[in-house]
Amino acid sequence: MERYRAVPVRLPSGVRYWTVVDGAWRIDEAADGFLLHMRLGRDLAESSTKAYAISLALLFDWCEAAGLGWQQAPRALGRFVHWLRYHDPARTGPPDLSRPVRGEGRVNGVLAAVREFYRHAVAAGLAGPGTLRALFEVADDRSLPAEARGEGLVQARLRPRHRLREPERTVEAVSDEEILDLLRACRNARDRFIVLALWRMGLRRGELAGLRREDVHFVPDATRLGCGVKGPHVHVRRRDNANGAAAKSRRSRAVPADWLVVQAYDQYMSDRDACPPAQSCDFVLVNLSRGRIGGPMRPGALNELLEALSRRAGLDRRARPHMARHAFATNVSASGATLDEIRELLGHESFTASAVYLHPSPDRLREAVARVPVPRDDAHQAHQ
Question: Which of 21, 24, 165, 264 could serve as a FRET partner for 136 with CA atoms 20 to 30 Å apart?
Fold first, then answer.
C-alpha cells in the first residue's frame, strides 16, 4: 500500500511546485525544503519538481516498508534499487521477479532525484557527510574524452555507486508517412498547425502550449518588433503559465519556422479570430470546441489530440508529441546538421542529449561507404 504521494502546492505569489505528503496528508519537511529549493533556488520547472516529488515518495514508501529512516537509506540503497524494479503496489503477496515493474531508465531517473535530495540534505545539515560516501565513489577523469577533462593534473569526480545499465537508447519517431496520415485526419486548422509545429520545429508539448502571440514572429524581418532574428521564427521562453505549460530549459531560444508552419498558422489565426472568447487570451493555442472556450490549451490536450488523430488515421500505434519532436530531430540530422545545430534547435542543455540523433540508419551507412572513392593507380595504368 502506497503511503506517501506527490501533491501540487501553490504559493501566495502564484508559483507552483510539488511536494510530498504522508498518509495523513502531513507534508514531509525534509522533502518540502528540498523541492522548494529546487523550484525557487535552482529555477526548476514545476513539472521537474513533480518528477522529483514522485521519486521521493517512492523512497519514503520503501523506507517505511524496510523499517528505515530516510537518513539510513543510503547505506542500503541497493535494496531500494531491487524494490524499485519489482515492487508493484497493486499486487498482493510476493513480487513477480520474472517481470520488472520499472525499466532501467525509470529506476535511474528515480535514483538521480534521490541523490540530489541527499546532497541537499547534507548541505542543510539534515544528514551526515557519510551519506555522500555511501552514494558516490571518487573517480578520476582519465576515462573521460580529452575535451571533457580538466587541464593539467588528473582531477577527481564523484561517480554514482548505484546505477543500472540501460539498453542502448533508440529514437522512437513518427515517420513522414504517419505525419501525412495525421494531417489528413485533422478536422480544423488549429490541429493541423499543432501537428506541423511539432514536426517541423521540434517543439516540446509544454513549449508549444506555452507560446504567446508575442512570441510568434512569422515575418521576414522582425526589426520593427524589436527582434534581430532573421526570417520567420518563434521565441521559446520559460514562464509560469496558467495552463501548466512550461519550457524545460531556462535559456530562451529562437526556433526557425518554414513556410508550411507559417501557412498553417495563418489559417489557424483566421479560425481563432472568429472566436470572440479567444480575443482576450494571449496564448497561441486556445480551446475552440471543448473545455473553457477561448482559454489556453493544456499540454496534456496535445497528447489527447494526437491519440485521437492516430485512431482516426488508422495508425498501427499511438503517436505522441515527443515522437513528432524526435522525427524533426532525425530529419534535421539526416539533412546534414551538425551536433551543435541540433542541440540549439532542440534546446538541449548538453550535447549528450542530442547525440542520439546522430545514429544513422543502415541505408545512410551504406551510402556513406559508397561515396568513398576507389583509389586509382594512374602510373600502373600508363604502362599498360
Answer: 21
In angstroms, rounded to a whole number, what is the distance separating the alpha carbons of residues 106 and 255? 30
**How much is the pLDDT for 150?**
52
Q: Which secondary structure element, helix H or strand E, spans residue 234, and what is its range?
A: strand 233-236
CA–CA separation, 231 vs 307, rounded Å?
A: 33
User: What pLDDT does 147 receive?
Assistant: 45
How would you classify the pairing of strands 136-140 and 253-256? unpaired
CA-based Rg of the chain, rounded to a whole angstrom? 25
- How far, in Å, CA of 58 to CA of 6, rounded? 10
- For 378, residues 6+ apart whose C-beta sits below 8 A from its C-beta are none
Residues of the chain with pLDDT under 50: 144, 147-149, 153-154
Which stretches within the chain are classed as H helix?
29-36, 46-66, 77-86, 104-123, 130-135, 176-185, 189-201, 205-209, 259-273, 299-313, 321-334, 339-346, 351-355, 362-370, 378-383
